[in-house]
Amino acid sequence: MTDKTSQIKQEFFEKLKEVKDIADLENIKVQYLGKNGTVTALMKDMKTLDADMKKQFGQVVNQLKTEVSNAVSDKFEELKKAAVEKEINSMADFDVSTPANLERGSYHPITLVQRECEKIFKSMGFTVEDYSEIVTDYECFESLNIPKHHPARDMQDTYYLENGQLLKTQTSAAQNAIYKKYKDALINEGKPIKAIFPGRCFRNEATDACHENTFFQMEGVMVDKNISISNLIFFMKTMLSEVFRKDIKVRLRPGFFPFVEPGFELDISCLICGGDGCPSCKHSGWLELCPCGMIHPEVLKAGGIDPEEYTGFAFGLGLTRLAMMKYGVKDIRDLNSGNLKSLSQFTDDE
Ligand code: FA5
User: What is the pLDDT of residues 194-211, one digit of tens each?
Assistant: First the structure.
């Protein structure tokens, strides 16, 4: 029997020398140590031996089993190490600093016009403010001289939360907070309030080529002593000529908003149809872009500013519509479509 175990051992180590990879090793392991393997069969053979021989032979077989198991484990570690080294060596020529072969992303057209407007207003001394999308009824309406049950609310139905808060319908909702934030510097240090605040707005709208239920506006306010409509017109003209970098036909007409007095609608000639009329401008040739006006005394008062001493203007630029006009997007809904094919073609002009 011991001759047989010696022979098995010799055979096993010869075969082990031939093993090239882990798959080979698994095979040989099953061949010797598996349920029907050579070493396991030796154990079964012991049944036929008498007690003394069984003990003696048992020790030999156990030792063989241990040697085979250890040899398999050592070989496994050796192969694993070799595989890792091979992997590392194969990466020797790999340059980790090589840029990934990915297509470059692009900014959304609304982001592009928003950044452009921010740059223009910043260069004229305006700060850029951030404001929440969920606001209170006071912020969105009451502080803007739109009490409960005022008919102006009908134009701006929105989504209400159970706690009475709402998704803001207009960036004007941030006006009150901005006045309160900067009024001390205005009153005590004579620093004019000059701020813009871009943001996402929500309305319960029947959508069409120029109306979305989710769109962007950019509010702007300036408050100081002796601010007049001339200041308002100057800033509007500067902004439009910088954004479009060409002459744009503009018209100013009276407009009603409870938070300005007087109020205006600033329209631009539709750049999609050149003013002839198309679905993008509701066939009027004009697109409502930037309502504006002189801030109503009640709104200044609600912000802690004395309207006898200070005046100001406010505007609410339709950023999404501006992006439509600037980039020739015929249907506003394309801008929320998430369609990368159409949205990724716009680039920063710089
Ligand atoms: C307002 O929202 C006022 N808060 C603007 C304002 C601010 C007036 C300060 C005076 C002083 P209006 O509802 O007209 O006004 O919206 C302003 C602009 O936002 C519109 O001219 C238009 O360009 C854009 N806009 C309004 N509703 C939508 C919509 N559903 N989809 C896309 N753009 C819209």
Answer: 999 999 999 999 999 999
